[in-house]
Design goal:
By secondary structure, this protein is of the alpha+beta class. The chain is built from four helices and six strands. The chain has helices at about 1-35, 50-95, 100-125, 130-155; strands at about 155-160, 170-180, 185-190, 195, 200-205, 205-210. It has a three-stranded antiparallel beta sheet with strand order 1-4-5. A three-stranded mixed beta sheet has the order 2-6-3, with no helix packed on it. Helix 3 (about 100-125) packs antiparallel against helix 4. The longest helix has about 50 residues, at about 50-95.
Length: about 220
Amino acid sequence: MKSILGMKKSLQISLCFRGSPRVFSTAAQQRSTGDECGPEDPHDEPKHPRSDCAIKHKAIKLEEQVQDLTERYRKALADSENVRRRTQKFVEDAKLFGIQSFCRDLVEVADILEKTTESAAEEAEPSNPNPTLKKIYEGLSLIEAKLQSVFAKHGLQKMNPVGGKYDPYDHEIVCHVPAEGMQPGTIALVTQDGYKLHGRTIRHALVGVAVESQE
């Protein structure tokens, strides 16, 4: 009986050893197969459509912000250029018209000089043999001519409106005269000269305008 049991045990042991290489080989094959395949690459995972939409939406917002900032920059640049031009114009006007009040006072002196010269001219007629008056007249005439030359040099000019159309920006009506050989509305005479400084009227000319005579 013992011999029979011993034979069974030896048979089982031999069967186990015979089957073990297959078990080991199967496990090895599984390991080698697993090593060759390796773990799955996370980058190969399919992308979600939601992430693509979010990226596109963000890109659109950034583009809108860039356009808004560009427009603001252009507007600020244009505003600064306008300020620069206005400042430059203000400085130029200050240089040109800074002497405007002085010129207003000076033209009054020119009026006195002109009237004095006219009076001296009447006294220094050929019928008057006084040479002193003649010299005074000549001297006053030279001073008046020089003064007008200085006026022109600095942009101050006397108006000559006789025969021209009445302009309320340059002339002030003090009387009306009959239109004898002149069109109504034209300037027939000047009682006080007007002056312009660089094209800007600093003193209106006092004029008489021709009107149709009423019979």
